[in-house]
Specification:
The complex is a heterodimer of chains A (169) and B (148).
Chain A (H helix, E strand, L loop, with lengths): L1 H7 L6 H4 L12 H7 L6 E9 L1 H11 L9 H6 L9 H8 L1 H7 L4 E8 L11 E12 L3 E10 L2 E2 L1 E9 L3
Antiparallel strand pairs in A: 1-3, 2-6, 3-4, 4-5, 4-6
Chain B lengths: L17 E2 L2 H10 L10 H6 L12 H13 L11 E10 L8 E14 L2 E11 L5 E11 L4
Antiparallel strand pairs in B: 1-3, 2-5, 3-4, 4-5
Classes of the chains: A alpha+beta (169), B alpha+beta (148).
Chain lengths: 169, 148
């Protein structure tokens, strides 16, 4: 992949013709494949703010079937010693990958993992805003590992948040 | 009751087939703020080569959840849900889930560890389609807080 990329640099018009590995070529409608072939480690591919309100939590509870009351009842959250009603970890995980999905296309997501390191407290009036930065962490054979930094109140809430994206199709 | 260390390696029976509905995919997509057209628009999904709308990357949690209920409902496992915290989560996919898929999941407990008074239970739920082909593997680590 790396060699093709270097060969193509500065000569995009010949790129399709030189790509002997795929006879059909990237085609006219695959600027994304070209972009994926030219990724560099450290490159930011997407960045976004994601807002949660209490409504978001109720909606996720219904869609996912996770009705743990710590995600919608202040009294229950307080009774178990939490600082407030928390976003479902799986809602944070599910929303945080969306900037990468929109950038690469959903079918290219091969692997996605996170560690839940800090809860996201969702204020009843103000809600909570996450900031997501998606950066190329590593390039592999036909794949790129995109590392997510997901922060809330200036502190990261997910650890080892990594998305493996197919770059060869 | 602490987690029973002997559940390491334990495998539960495959779940009943789960039929993935188009509206369920759209509902889940809205809930995780997934706006890509391939999650919502059948024509866009077909143009991208899928039979129907495709589910967001974390949708497999809905099917994995059925297997986690088996583990949490197994009294001999000793995983007390009221003290469980979700530690890690991972999805490793062969292909996206498509509306119309009929999926079955089977959970295996891959490890049980004790760390500073807490137990960590890692399980792997393999999700396959009606033909038996692999779709996605969902891996979870649950931290079970020790009794103080």
């Amino acid at each position: 992949m790396g060699e093709v990329q270097q060969g193509v640099n500065g000569a995009p018009a010949t790129a399709a013709g030189m790509d002997g590995a795929s006879p059909a070529g990237p085609g006219l409608e695959s600027p994304m494949l070209d972009a994926l072939a030219q990724l560099e480690v450290g490159q930011v591919v997407a960045e976004r703010d994601i807002a949660f309100t209490r409504d978001s939590l109720v909606r996720y509870a219904g869609a996912s079937g996770d009705f743990n009351p710590i995600h919608y009842r202040d009294d229950v959250a307080a009774a178990v010693g939490l600082p407030g009603v928390l976003a479902h970890g799986m809602l944070t995980m599910g929303a945080a990958v969306q900037p990468v999905v929109d950038w690469a296309g959903p079918a290219r997501i091969r692997d996605y993992q996170v560690r839940f390191t800090r809860p996201v407290v969702v204020d009843p009036a103000a809600g909570a805003v996450l900031h997501v930065v998606a950066k190329v962490g590593q390039l592999g054979e036909g794949t790129a590992r995109i590392d997510l930094t997901v922060s809330f109140d200036e502190r990261t809430v997910l650890g080892k948040a990594q998305v493996v994206v197919a770059t060869d199709r | 009751m602490p987690v029973n260390p002997e559940i390491q390696g334990r495998q539960y029976p495959p779940t009943e087939p789960y039929l993935v509905g188009r509206e369920k995919v759209r509902e889940f997509a809205r809930a995780v703020q997934a706006t890509h057209p391939e999650h919502h628009d059948v024509e866009a999904a077909r143009a991208a080569g899928h039979a129907d709308v495709i589910a967001p990357p974390t949708f497999p949690i809905v099917i994995q959840e059925l297997t986690l209920q088996q583990l949490l409902g197994d009294e001999s496992a000793g995983v007390d849900f009221s003290r469980v915290v979700h530690g890690d989560q991972r999805f490793t996919a062969t292909r996206p889930i498509v509306a119309g898929d009929e999926l079955t999941a089977q959970l295996t407990v891959t490890s049980v560890k004790s760390l500073g008074g807490n137990d960590m239970v890692t399980s792997e739920s393999v999700i396959t389609d009606a033909s038996g082909a692999h779709v996605v593997t969902a891996t979870s680590s649950l931290v079970v807080r020790g009794e103080q």
